Description:
- This protein is α+β, with helices and mostly antiparallel strands.
- It has one domain: uncharacterized conserved protein from methanopyrus kandleri domain like (uncharacterized conserved protein from methanopyrus kandleri fold like, 2-Layer Sandwich).
- Helices cover 22% and strands 39% of the residues.
- The protein is built from three helices and eight strands; from the N terminus they run ββββαβαβαββ.
- The protein has helices at residues 37-40, 47-54, 65-73, and strands spanning 2-7, 12-17, 25-28, 31-34, 43-44, 59-63, 83-85, 88-94.
- The strands form two sheets. A six-stranded mixed beta sheet has the order 5-1-2-6-8-7, with helices on one face. A two-stranded antiparallel sheet has the order 3-4.
- The longest helix is centred in the last third of the chain and has 9 residues, at 65-73.
- The protein starts with a strand and ends with a strand.
Amino acid sequence: MYMKIHITEEHTILAACDEDLAGRTFREDNKRLDVSELFYRGESVERDALVRKMKGATIMNLVGEGPVSIAIEEGYASEDNVIEIDGVRHVQVVLI
């Protein structure tokens, strides 16, 4: 999985995607999911590293089976929060 951290004045944004999805765009009906390499492609990580970074994030933008499943397993999201566009799972998490 690729993971990249973006820090703003108010938030720590964690972006993660399955490596094979980076740089691709998915469309279905009126929905579009742009998995921008600039936004998502950071370091290549395994599950444990992603889970550690999730603990410090205030916003998560996750694409693909790996990151989405981990967010659900760790209690940050539920299946009800997940959308699928052209067969690609996506979830956004905002922690307040």
